[in-house]
Specification:
With about 120 residues, the protein is α+β, with helices and mostly antiparallel strands. The chain is built from 4 helices and 6 strands, in the order ββαααβββαβ. The protein is elongated and about 55 Å long.
Length: about 120
């Protein structure tokens, strides 16, 4: 079993867990990416031999990125003020009234700009 821990906004790899009989054969790949302060995108973009245990890195990376994409799919951004909203039903920006559009990837400034759903309206 292989698990990659990464930050959902920056995608930086924070740790790797490898458990099983052949863990020692693949753990060095994760250690290298950690040492180089790489992102999970390295595993997504790399080509691993098939069938090998190392291929588990690509499978784990794709699984993790799909989970982040599910989170992003409900978010929208205002094109003028760049504010990000997580309210699925909201159609216009609360600041300037501009029409919102859906995000296709996590913005780098996500933690500073997200406005949570507001039920006071």
């Amino acid at each position: 079993m292989l698990k990659i821990l990464f930050h959902p906004d920056s995608l930086k790899v924070l740790g790797v867990h490898a458990i099983g009989e052949s863990a020692t054969e693949i753990i060095h790949i994760g250690q290298t990416v950690l040492a180089l302060e790489g992102t999970i995108e390295f595993f997504r973009d790399s080509v691993f031999n098939y069938p090998t245990f190392a291929e588990a890195y690509k499978v784990a990376a794709l699984n993790g990125l799909n989970k982040v994409r599910e989170k992003v799919s409900t978010m929208k951004r205002c094109p003028t003020c760049k504010r990000v909203y997580d309210d699925v039903d909201l159609k216009f920006c609360r600041t300037d009234g501009a029409a919102l559009f859906r995000l296709t990837s996590a913005p780098r400034d996500l933690q500073d700009t997200v406005v949570l759903s507001d039920s006071r309206q």
